[in-house]
Backbone:
């Protein structure tokens, strides 16, 4: 009823319509939030004044989605080729191999948790391979790093959580600092070695940027994919007619995954700041005001999508905003799409009689992203 809402608390703007959200995502008059600076400002409110949250602030200052041109363009260009559609396509055999390993292990337990057994381990191993993380280093705590650090994009983080976030950021910094030191002595054909070369030979980035880039890629390459797979499998299990269509015609997986991304978006909100006064939808947003963009709501806008609340794996007109738009369009979108297509199609073909083990679902407590803590399914033979 009020698609452009000005909150009396905090003075922030909330946009929910597709046209408005897309417009702001592409508008050069708005900038992304300097999250590192915001985190530093939170420190004064912490109860335990003996602790600081500098590791968390340092880690996020140079996350790509919190940077603006020209620094954003400089850093994105260094890693963009690694995530190009051509490069990602070459990863298909590896994803399929890891999926089969994870599925075999999960089947030995009887009941399968799609999140823990399938959706989490595959993306972490894939981004680990891209970065150059030794396979023996991949451990369960890495999933906890991702689950914890992905909270930073939420605009409503309780103060009590910041010290925990900082501790995890410190652990991630220490790990990647050691790995970077190893690659300095013994370069490999991996992304970390590429970033080190860019730092030392061309001066295109500094030491902190190398470290932050590693942490950002490690976290974001997992979280979005895990949520996409979990939300997608849930939508299919709750809409058996659509699941049957995909089982019978696995070649429609492309449109099915795009519908999953639209119907239950893994990222629900993005925030921008007006860099100058601007008008949108008859409202004037003043310079310096925050603008919260509701991606999930925009993806259900009836003005853009016919029958928006209907889950339709054959939907054709589907220009959703699940991965954002404009210069901050998700860098890892091609990889997330490929992983989701392979995993979802493979699950349905190999385990055609999957059923929800429970109708009780526990969602992660966050505003900006949407994902399940677990998704238990039963394999009916």
Residues:
């Amino acid at each position: 009823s009020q698609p452009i809402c000005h909150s009396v608390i905090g003075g922030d703007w909330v946009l929910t319509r597709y046209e408005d959200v897309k417009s702001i995502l592409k508008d050069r008059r708005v900038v992304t939030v300097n999250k590192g600076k915001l985190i530093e400002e939170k420190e004064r409110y912490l109860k335990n004044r003996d602790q600081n949250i500098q590791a968390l602030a340092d880690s996020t200052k140079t996350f790509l989605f919190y940077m603006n041109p020209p620094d954003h363009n400089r850093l994105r260009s260094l890693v963009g080729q690694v995530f190009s559609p051509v490069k990602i396509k070459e990863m298909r055999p590896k994803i399929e191999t890891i999926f089969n390993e994870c599925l075999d292990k999960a089947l030995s337990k009887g009941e399968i948790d799609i999140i823990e057994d399938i959706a989490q381990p595959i993306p972490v191993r894939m981004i680990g391979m891209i970065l150059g993380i030794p396979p023996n280093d991949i451990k369960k705590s890495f999933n906890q790093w991702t689950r914890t650090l992905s909270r930073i994009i939420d605009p409503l983080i309780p103060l009590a959580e910041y010290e925990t976030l900082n501790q995890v950021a410190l652990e991630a910094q220490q790990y990647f600092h050691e790995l970077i030191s190893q690659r300095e002595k013994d370069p490999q054909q991996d992304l970390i070695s590429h970033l080190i070369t860019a730092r030392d030979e061309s001066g295109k980035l500094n030491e902190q940027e190398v470290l932050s880039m590693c942490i950002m890629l490690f976290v974001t390459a997992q979280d979005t994919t895990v949520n996409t797979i979990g939300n997608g499998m849930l939508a299919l299990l709750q809409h058996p007619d659509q699941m049957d269509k995909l089982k019978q015609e696995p070649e429609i997986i492309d449109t099915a995954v795009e519908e999953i991304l639209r119907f239950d978006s893994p990222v629900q909100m993005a925030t921008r700041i007006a860099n100058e006064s601007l008008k949108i939808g008859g409202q004037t947003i003043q310079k310096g005001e925050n603008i919260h963009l509701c991606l999930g709501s925009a993806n259900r806008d009836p003005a853009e999508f016919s029958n928006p609340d209907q889950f339709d794996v054959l939907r054709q007109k589907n220009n959703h905003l699940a991965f954002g738009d404009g210069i901050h369009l998700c860098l890892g979108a091609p990889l997330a799409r490929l992983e989701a297509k392979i995993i979802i199609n493979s699950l349905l073909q190999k385990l055609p009689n999957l059923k929800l083990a429970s109708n009780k679902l526990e969602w992660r407590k966050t505003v900006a992203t949407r994902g399940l803590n677990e998704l238990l399914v039963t394999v009916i033979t």
Summary: The radius of gyration is 21 Å. The chain has one domain: 33-267+322-379. The mean pLDDT is 92. Residues 63 and 213 are 6 Å apart (CA to CA).
